[in-house]
Design goal:
12 helices, 10 strands, 42% helix, binds 5'-O-[(R)-(carboxyoxy)(hydroxy)phosphoryl]adenosine, five-stranded mixed sheet, alpha/beta, binds zinc ion, 358 residues
């Protein structure tokens, strides 16, 4: 089955042609980082305009690179949410028009489910039940996946996403955007034990994440130690490198510690770690060590498939198309789309007084 994937949920316009859900014939990504960089984050209006400009050429290039005719695809898969509404609508509208013109089946894909499928490439097949940690700029979730297509949220962030914390801390010390890769680079030359940040724990005992308190702790540290944010092009000081290493270390300990604790309770047969933050080498290393302790394999996407791309959307869509799922031309973007079709005990969460911002 040959599927065209389309992804425009945030600041990457992407299209990919994928055969049988695990073979990439082409994967084209047009990143908008240079446009949003000077604002220190994604500007939604600029993002949707840029998607409009790029979607046609990006899809053309995907077909040209794969050397396939449009008519030879078996279906289309497009991200329908969560994401920025104007951005999502560009992809959804384009995909509907193309499906109609080619008379091919179309399915909508949840972006987070797409990240889970990013490990379908370059890894052995996932054995279920699996435990999937999805860490990106907009999401930090731990899913129990007893079988393909079934998801239970076992932990999630109460406030900031892990990638968002990297981006905010980088902005705070004048490091630029996106913060994750820059912090990782500086952390390699810093001492992770230089600044003592506590791993955030929930008072109610639920295995959730929280990163906004950590951001406040970093702000306080910067102020109390009189660290000056870097001006454009300035070389980072050792104090900033140490801060980057200490911050990264506590984020990694929080993510991996929770994943390991939950794994000890659920007994997964595969661990999946995906999303933009899964590019992080320190996180990968800590996950590998935890997986060894747990004696289960851990799969990561290769770095170009960790951040947003359309190959993962095509892979997730292939399973849906194969199962006979079809979207009508009334398919719409859903900004707040959640992933999770196994009941979580919301009463227990309420009793514990858990409040979620995301
Ligand atoms: O998955 P993604 O491309 O977009 C969303 O769906 O959000 O993730 C982008 C996020 C950004 O917050 C970025 O700072 C973070 O992933 N990121 C990293 C690294 N590379 C990207 N965080 C930590 N270390 C990295 N090497
Ligand atoms: Zn993403």
């Amino acid at each position: 089955m040959l599927v065209l994937g389309i992804e425009t949920s945030c600041d990457e316009t992407a299209a990919a042609l994928v055969r049988n859900g695990n073979e990439i014939l082409s994967s084209v990504i047009s990143s908008q980082i240079d446009i949003h960089k000077r604002f220190g984050g994604v500007v939604p209006e600029l993002a949707s305009r840029e998607h409009l400009d790029k979607i046609g050429p990006v899809i053309d290039e995907a077909f040209a690179c794969a050397k396939v005719e449009r008519n030879s695809i078996d279906g289309l898969a497009v991200t329908v949410g969560p994401g920025l509404v104007g951005s999502l609508l560009v992809g959804v509208s384009y995909a509907k028009a193309m499906a109609f013109a080619l008379n091919k089946p179309l399915v909508g894909v949840n972006h987070i489910e797409g990240h889970i499928y990013s490990v379908a490439f370059e890894n052995p097949p996932v054995i279920h039940p699996a435990l999937a940690l999805i860490v990106s700029g907009g999401h930090t979730n731990l899913f129990w996946v007893p079988e393909p297509g079934k998801y239970k949220v076992v932990a999630r962030t109460r406030d900031d996403a892990a990638g968002e914390a990297f981006d905010k801390v980088a902005k705070l010390v004048g490091l630029g955007y996106p913060g994750g890769p820059i912090i990782e680079r500086l952390a390699r030359e810093g001492n992770p034990r230089a600044v003592k940040f506590a791993v955030p724990r929930m008072g109610d005992g639920l295995p959730d994440f929280s990163f906004s308190g950590l951001k406040t702790a970093v702000t306080k540290y910067v102020r109390e130690n009189d660290l000056q944010p870097l001006k454009h092009g300035e070389a980072p000081t050792q104090a900033i490198r140490d801060l980057a290493a200490s911050f990264q270390s506590v984020v990694v300990r929080s993510l991996v510690g929770t994943m390991e604790k939950v794994a000890e309770e659920y007994y997964p047969r595969t661990l999946i770690v995906a999303g933009g933050v899964a590019c992080n080498g320190a996180l990968r290393e800590a996950c590998r060590i935890a997986a060894k302790r747990l004696d289960v394999p851990v799969y990561f996407p290769s770095p170009h498939l960790s951040t947003d791309n359309a190959a993962m959307i095509a892979a997730a869509g292939t399973v849906k198309l194969g199962a006979g799922e079809r979207a009508g031309l009334d398919l719409n973007a859903d900004v707040t789309l959640r992933l999770g079709n196994i009941e979580v005990d919301e009463d227990a969460q309420k009793r514990a007084g858990a409040r979620y911002r995301l």
